[in-house]
Amino acid sequence: MTNANSVNGNEYSDLMRKAIGVRIEEIGLSWHGNRTTMAGGRKTRPPRCTLTLHKDTCAKPRLMSTDKILWSTRICYKWQCETTEYAMLVHNCYIGSARNPLYIIREDGCTTEGAIMSSPSYNSFTRAVAIGYLSVRELGMQHVTIKCNVRLCHLCDEDCREITPPRSCSDYEKERDMDYDRMWNASSRVQSLCRPAPSSVPSSNHSFNLISIFSILLYCMISLLLHVNMSP
Predict the structure, then answer these.
(1) pLDDT of 192-205, one tens digit each?
(2) Contact 165/99 with Cβ under 8 angstroms?
(3) Which residue ranges does UniProt annotate as crossing the membrane (predicted)?
(4) Average pLDDT, integer, range 159-186
(5) Among 46, 76, 96, 208, which one has the highest count of C-beta atoms within 10 angstroms of its own C-beta?
């Protein structure tokens, strides 16, 4: 796919054969709701969220700034956020260039063009992956840019269940339902964070026993002192 208005046959062939670099822009981070309120009044530091690219599968080493790719190179995208209290939604991603962006992930987190990138699937609240191709080319392009945004919502916020993972995406619907069930229904993480078990407190009988023991010890010490003082 090219963004040039008119490209002749030779130029088109050159664009398709040329290996170019990849530039990953910093992730744009936003919050749903008041993060200070949801964190129990504590001031929380923004988590570190990253996007890494990998050739073919995400099990391969990440692409470095010096690596080159072809238009036909299969890419695995991996997003991660370092947090234990928030869930993330990848949204509003574009590839190409800032001058001619091609948006491939919508506001709701679903793909606009499945042939270029699948909708991100979520392995957990803080990790998502997608498969695609950075096949956008322009005349004179030395690198292709990718820019994504991530929205965070607190796990204890009831709205968070409706935000991530997105269930309105048309690709891999069954897998997305399984992701949702695994994250929100089968995991103990939300329960332990938002509805922790009450801490155990000493029973009244236990407290009474401690007081009784202390009183006996005190009485014995006083008796001993009196006995010593009264001795000739």
Answers:
(1) 888 887 765 555 45
(2) no
(3) 208-228
(4) 89
(5) 96
Residues 108, 115: contact at Cβ < 8 Å?
Answer: no
Beta bridge partners of 55: 75
Helix extents (H) in the chain: 9-17, 35-38, 160-163, 173-180, 189-194, 204-230
Place of tokens 């890494």: 52
SS3 195: coil
Instruction: Give the global pTM.
Output: 0.77
Residue type, 124: S
Lowest mean pLDDT among 1-5, 18-22, 98-102, 182-186: 1-5
Q: Are 86 and 38 in contact (CB under 8 A)?
A: no
* SS3 of residue 83 by DSSP: coil
The single residue listed with the structure tokens 């929205």 is 151
Q: Count Cβ atoms below 10 Å from residue 101 Cβ, excluding itself.
A: 16
Nearest to 120 by CA among 147, 148, 145, 90: 90
- Contact (Cβ atoms closer than 8 angstroms) between residue 101 and residue 92: no
Cα–Cα distance measured from residue 194 to residue 189, given in angstroms and rounded to the nearest whole number: 8
For β-strands 74-81 and 49-55, DSSP reports them as: antiparallel
